[in-house]
Amino acid sequence: MSQNIYDNETFFQEYKELRKNVYNYNILVEQPAIRKLLPDLSGKIVLDLGCGYGNNCIDFISKGASKVVGIDISSKMLEIAKKENIHENIKYIQMDMSKINILSQKFDLIFSSLAFHYVEDYKKLICDIRLLLKDNGTLLYSQEHPNTTAPKKGCVWTKDQFGNKLYSNLSDYMYSGKRKITWLNEKIEKYHRPMSEIINTLIKENFIIKELVEPIPDENALKKRPDFIDEFHRTTCVIIKAQLSH
Amino acid sequence: MSQNIYDNETFFQEYKELRKNVYNYNILVEQPAIRKLLPDLSGKIVLDLGCGYGNNCIDFISKGASKVVGIDISSKMLEIAKKENIHENIKYIQMDMSKINILSQKFDLIFSSLAFHYVEDYKKLICDIRLLLKDNGTLLYSQEHPNTTAPKKGCVWTKDQFGNKLYSNLSDYMYSGKRKITWLNEKIEKYHRPMSEIINTLIKENFIIKELVEPIPDENALKKRPDFIDEFHRTTCVIIKAQLSH
Fold first, then answer.
1. Which tens digit of pLDDT belongs to each residue from A168-205?
2. Per DSSP, which regions of chain B are E strands?
3. In this predicted complex, what is the ipTM?
4. B-side interface with A, Cβ within 8 Å?
5. What pTM does this model have?
């Protein structure tokens, strides 16, 4: 079973505070970039892996999806989803991402935002996704960038005397595997995989890479968060769009 | 016209010395990794962009290629190629890689080893390559890894007091463009492009990504060059195999 840090009460309170800031990374950088890559959703059936609050699920409905299944390991996340983003065509299920092979439905789009870096067995996940996708179905997901997940000591910046970030300390990039880092005062387990492993696993499971995005803040985002200029030194996340070949 | 640093006499003497060391990076890491990805060459026509000494050209012949064209901007490189790696089915041409659109022949494989990071207009290069490839033809190339080319100040390591490399100073990754660095006592111009730009340019030109390799030294290489363990912190090069879809 995957780590369920979001059901840790203290952690979740901290996380909720972070998410309240409408000028956070997800809202200003990751969300606009991944939404740009969405295929036409009219009448489509979508699975959202690690759906969290359900914001993307409700967005898919507004874009015409006929059915959305959102799964998340955290009951606390889903409590909020069921309050804030409820819809008759959205079904929320508490489920570990490593258990999706029990789903019987097939999907047009499998989507995931910033969750795959928590998954230990990426190869199995991609295999499970392949089996759940219709022919020509799309996988669209973001995860932390390998340059961010690589260092065994966590992603650390070297700063100048004024606190400006000079460069990111890149190490351990080719050592695929578990990383233990501290986030919001809690120990978090993540999994680092080099870009080549991420890409080649998809290709071996019959996916065609359609686009790779290393998102950067636009002018508007930089006005709100000038510190996001550091994303130009190394991007926090990577977004991959892949299509199952028939 | 691209920079022709290899025809600088002083630089070329230094370069030849470096290449004489049979325990260098090219021989121990890059060459074995890229050769593993070669398709079946029996009866195939191959173009080698930046062929240098012609070692790969002669290797293609030994693997059954019926014809090989090797181009290089440097006359000094080709002088050596024409001495050491001559064959009736290899044609060496002194030519800037940005001029390959004048070639009239079509190829089964277009190959390039550690040269594309010298090319300013990558988009044009990939477009030219597409036009020179037969349907289902293969592009196989290595170039310096974006994590190596990114820093505007050149790729620098932070070391401990004993000189051991701790981490690579990663910066400027999302600023695509020219980099001026010093190598073998000469100023060299290279072009950095983020991984996403490298990959998406290929996809837009109708290539299907078949494999992405971030090569690391094997046990044998590490015995000869224990210092190559640092490649696990960040790899010097990346290798891409792509197929033109029909």
1. 999 999 999 999 988 777 888 999 999 999 999 999 99
2. 45-49, 67-72, 90-94, 107-112, 133-144, 157-159, 165-170, 177-183, 186-192, 207-213, 237-244
3. 0.94
4. 147, 151, 158, 166-175, 194-196, 199-200, 203, 208-214, 216, 231-235, 238
5. 0.94
